[in-house]
Amino acid sequence: MEILLTEIISQNVTGIQWIGTEAWITAKLISPEESVRFLIGTIGPAIPMLEVKGLREFLLKIHPSSFPGNAFVKKFWETAFQCTFPSGNTSQITALSTWQQCTGKEDLTQIHNVYSDVSVDGSSYNVYKAVYAFAHALHNMLSCEKGNEPFMNNTCARVSNFQPWQLLHYLQSVNFTTTSGDRVYFDGNGDPVAMYDLINWQIDSRGVSEIKIIGSYDGSASPGHELTLDEEAIVWKSGQNKMPRSVCSESCIPGTRKVARKGQPVCCFDCTECAEGEISNITDSTDCIKCPEQYWPNQQRDRCLPKEIEFLSFTEMLGGVLLTLALVGVSTTISIAIVFFTHRDTPIVKANNSELSYLLLFALTLFWACMLCHTAFAIATLPNNNMAKLFGPAQQRWSVFLLTSVQCLICTLWLTISHPFPMRNTEYYREIIILECDLGSVSAFYSMAGYIAFLAGVSFVLAFLARKLPDNFNEAQCITFSMLTFCAVWITFIPVYISSPGKYTVAVEVFAILASSCGLLFCIFVPKCYIILIKPEMNTKKESTVITPLLKRKHP
């Protein structure tokens, strides 16, 4: 210990919280003496000390004049007051020239050192209790009476010739209380009750180091009450009153994990935040746990929360705008159907195949409601121009039925074999679930889309070829514009749909359906309604009838 303290002094090692052991925590003399200032704040356990009654009074009465021939008393006096007597041998102590001569008038009550401390240290106190334990064991052995013989054949130990194991039997069963109030007994393993004082080295008002008892440990106390500690009385390292933090690295809070520092002790580490999608819910976690697929960490990354589900809702602004447009479209379509039905006997309605017009308006109604819109596309993209007049009513009905039946068959097979279904997409956003519609069978979808494109192309070609027919109300031009609008919308839809994220893909598709429906409605039916409602003078048989040589040959 002396070598260690000498090195501490030479390197001026300060700021360390010392934890003393029972061997030196109660030492009165520490060598070298200047090391005491480095040890202020030391805490450690010590065997309880006992103050012997009457010892102090005895020591205070000692004087060299009372024991003239006692060399020990003379040496004690010289050491206590650091003085020398004029006569006597010249020992190493009395040979120190810096000490004054002893006068005999020195007062023992004024000194405060190891000699004035009359408390018995822990080791001496244990010896004290051991002697009493043996005394009680011998007393119990001597008090052996007939009827209480503990040994074989109901015999007692012979006092003049007893065996050690016989005394041990009585020693294990002793149970007494010392004059200082400590209870002494041994457990089943032969161990005494653990009792310790908690010692703290402090500086008193005079700047002298002193030992303070700040707590105790009593193994015989009830569970949970063995340790008592007065935290406010503790003086920590360098005389501080605040408890020091004796760690290389602070604990890692939940949401982080420990990463060891290369080349440093295991108590030195860095706290690294858990990666995206991972959490840690305990302090000083060494690993992070990945959240389930449907969950995502909170901001602190110490809990997994259900992911937010995102979809196009009617309650948000975008969904509300699209819903409003759809309602306006449905209302407009129904209004046009009412206008056509109210003026069903007028020439312009009769001249444009009212049955096919009603069927087309019904398909457009499905468009606006997004119900069976893919099937209704087959009806909406049918040729509805003057070229249809080359066929009779029966042929026209059959052509519409057959062309629509193909689309219905494709859609029925699609819904039967592998129908679309709602899917939770977790790939686009890691923290959000996109609720979208999976196509199911991609082949069926492309077959349906290809057939719609085929019908649209045929309608556009026929309308384009009939655009120069002599007609005051040239319906072919209206169909041409409607098909151009239809094709332009859906050709533009493809790249926009692919590049749109999350719920906006659904919004793009809905907008494309509404835009193409609007193009068909306004290009084909609005001009007719304009004539019926605004220009009724043009709604005559003369204005709406077209007579060509071809039609004359067909319909004489």
Automatic annotation (TrEMBL):
It is a multi-pass membrane protein. It holds the Pfam family NCD3G. GO terms for cellular component: plasma membrane. The chain crosses the membrane at residues 317-341, 356-377, 444-466, 478-498, 510-533. It is found in: Cell membrane. GO terms for molecular function: G protein-coupled receptor activity. Coiled coil: none annotated. Gene3D superfamilies: 3.40.50.2300, GPCR, family 3, nine cysteines domain. Keywords: Cell membrane, G-protein coupled receptor, Glycoprotein, Membrane, Receptor, Signal, Transducer, Transmembrane, Transmembrane helix. Residues 318-548 form the G-protein coupled receptors family 3 profile domain. Belongs to the G-protein coupled receptor 3 family. This is G-protein coupled receptors family 3 profile domain-containing protein.
